[in-house]
Amino acid sequence: MRSRTIEEYKRGLALCAEQREALVGLLLGDAHLEGDRPGRTYRLKIEQSDRRRAYVEHLHRLFHEWVLTPPQPKIVRSRGHASVNWWFQTVRHKAFQFYATQFYRDGRKCVPRLLDQMLTPRGLAYWFMDDGSRKWRQSRAVLLNTQGYPKEDVEYLAQVLLQNFGLETYLRRQRDGYQIVIAGRSLERFAMLIAPYLLPEMWYKLPRVGQTQLPKR
């Protein structure tokens, strides 16, 4: 599109409720926002490994009206090994400004102090799809990889999970920070909350005990 056409198109954009809820979970995970220098408009950038290409394509469909090009492959080199990631980004828009002010402090990701008002079951599902896993193969517990946040932010996240959803958690110390462990006794409750939004490709992240008791989408 030409610049003027793009600007006219952008004026008609607005985040729907589904996009807003998912965005909160994505920003708690691996997604990030890039802003212009005055900090008035931002764009959402999604990037995942080749294994999660179906997930990236789902996110592209979720934000399709905000994206001008389809997901693209990107060669990533690390320690002499080359792999493929898939990524896309939205147009810059003032609709993302509120989320940038909540999720970034001094240019670094942080946990919004309003998260207790922002995080819904849909957002929790996208957070888990982005940054969650089983604790180990035989365990009923699941992990949220929150090592990128300072301990006080991780403690607040755990508080929100209890307050909003009744999920029992504890912090697990790692070399690079703290993970949140959702205790096995909260597995069924957690699974019921996220099941309506969990993609088929992501069921492997839940322990089998949760999968057998839940209806498939």
In short:
37% of the residues lie in helices and 23% in strands.
Description:
There is one protein chain. The protein is α+β, with helices and mostly antiparallel strands and 217 residues long. The chain has helices at residues 3-11, 17-28, 53-62, 97-103, 115-118, 121-131, 151-165, 187-194, 208-211, and strands at 32-35, 42-49, 72-78, 81-89, 104-105, 108-109, 132-134, 142-144, 169-174, 177-182. Strands 1-2-4-3 form a four-stranded antiparallel β-sheet. A hairpin with a 2-residue loop joins β5 and β6. α2 runs parallel beside α6. It is globular. The model has no long low-confidence stretch (mean pLDDT 92).
Keywords for this entry:
alpha+beta, 9 helices
Our count of helices gives 9
Strand content: 15-25%
* Strands ordered across the widest β-sheet: 1-2-4-3
> Nearest-angstrom radius of gyration?
18 Å
First and last CA, distance: 37 Å
Order of helices and strands: HHEEHEEHEEHHEEHEEHH
Biggest pleated-sheet summary = 4 strands, antiparallel
**What best-fitting shape do the alpha-carbon axes yield?**
globular
| Helical residue percent band | 25-40%
Q: Could you tell me the number of beta strands? A: 10
**Would you identify the regions where 5 or more consecutive residues have pLDDT less than 50?**
none
Output the structural class. alpha+beta
Quote the average pLDDT. Answer: 92
